[in-house]
Amino acid sequence: MQVRVFVTPRKGILDPQGRAVESSLQSLGFKNVSGVKVGKYILLEVEARTASEARDEAKKMCEALLANPVIEDYRFEVDGE
Amino acid sequence: MKWGVVRFPGSLDDGDSLYAIAEVMGQDARMLWHKDESLGGVECVLLPGGFSYGDYLRTGAIARFSPIMKSVAKFAADGGLVIGICNGFQILCEAHLLPGALTRNRSLSFICQRVWLRVENASTPFTRAAKQGDLLRLPIKHGEGLYVAPEDEIRQMEERGQVILRYVDADGRESDAANPNGSMRAIAGVANQRFNVFGLMPHPEHAVEPMLGGVDGLKIFQSIAGSAR
């Protein structure tokens, strides 16, 4: 089952990459853009019988390794949900 | 004192650290392999700088799961002295042996320069050879040295004296210009609540002989050597 994990800098944590991308977009003329954050997109194939089992596994993986809760938030999508 | 320097795949400053401890300080030091589980009876473990596991995912995130890190965590829990320099600091944060995290420099650039640091707490095993307020001149070289922690946690750390080193200017004053990477409260080095685990971004092992441009790094190593149990 495919799990798609999105990891983004936590709200309130300085995100210099997001800020640099935002100011580049604005200098290209995209004056309507704000709140840019740069994060990670991680694709996983998880062996699981049900989507909820995959979801439980994915949550454990995010907390153990894929995201650092001090600086990052995560969310994920599971196939079939 | 018996020291162990952990070599991870991608460690860079393991050799220089061993040189500083063994050759310059004349201490008993050995290299420890990341796959080993035994610390060989050392009294201080040093996690060196570098790019362990290619900095994949996050700096220090993968090294934390090396077999030796279980032993290092147990050693720290038993009160053993652990110092992490640069990537070693990042590993200690990822391993939850130190609070906070290190993330991309404010400038997004890799920084390689000498900085001034103020000793904020000289009553730790890592700084006892210095005096509070002393200035140290040490090199930094990192892309991800911006120290971050929740505001209330930083406040508590400051009250407990866990902030050990801060980036300052040559006169010992904090300023935005003297903060090379944008670290919160200009924090360059922190200890755990028990003061037996210490992490810092600057490199004391690169400042141990005059021909390296300074000897202020010796203060850190002398402090540790003088803290043998």
Salient structural properties:
heterodimer, A: 81 residues, alpha+beta, Mth169, Chain: A, 3-stranded antiparallel β-sheet, 2 helices, B: 229 residues, alpha/beta, Rossmann fold, 9-stranded mixed β-sheet, 5 helices, globular
> Which blocks of ≥5 consecutive residues of chain B have pLDDT under 50?
none
Give the second-level CATH assignment, the architecture of chain B.
3-Layer(aba) Sandwich
Shape of chain B: globular
How is the CATH topology of chain B named? Rossmann fold
Major sheet: arrangement of strands of chain A: 2-1-3
Mean model confidence by pLDDT of chain A: 93
Proportion of helical residues of chain B: 10-25%
Order of helices and strands of chain A, N to C?
A: EHEHE
Helix/strand layout:
The complex is a heterodimer of chains A (about 80) and B (about 230).
Chain A: E1 2-9, H1 16-27, E2 40-45, H2 51-66, E3 72-78
Antiparallel strand pairs in A: 1-2, 1-3
Chain B: E1 2-7, H1 14-24, E2 28-33, E3 44-47, H2 67-77, E4 81-85, H3 87-94, E5 101-103, E6 111-119, E7 135-142, E8 146-148, H4 151-160, E9 163-168, E10 187-191, E11 197-200, H5 217-225
Parallel strand pairs in B: 1-2, 1-3, 3-4, 4-11
Antiparallel strand pairs in B: 5-8, 6-7, 6-9, 9-10, 10-11
Describe this structure in words.
The complex is a heterodimer of chains A (81) and B (229). Helices cover 35% and strands 26% of the residues of chain A. Chain A has 81 residues and is an alpha+beta fold. By secondary structure, chain B is α/β, with parallel strands linked by helices. Chain B has helices at residues 14-24, 67-77, 87-94, 151-160, 217-225, and strands at residues 2-7, 28-33, 44-47, 81-85, 101-103, 111-119, 135-142, 146-148, 163-168, 187-191, 197-200. A 9-stranded mixed sheet of chain B has the order 2-1-3-4-11-10-9-6-7, with helices on both faces. The longest helix of chain B has 11 residues, at 14-24. Chain B is globular.
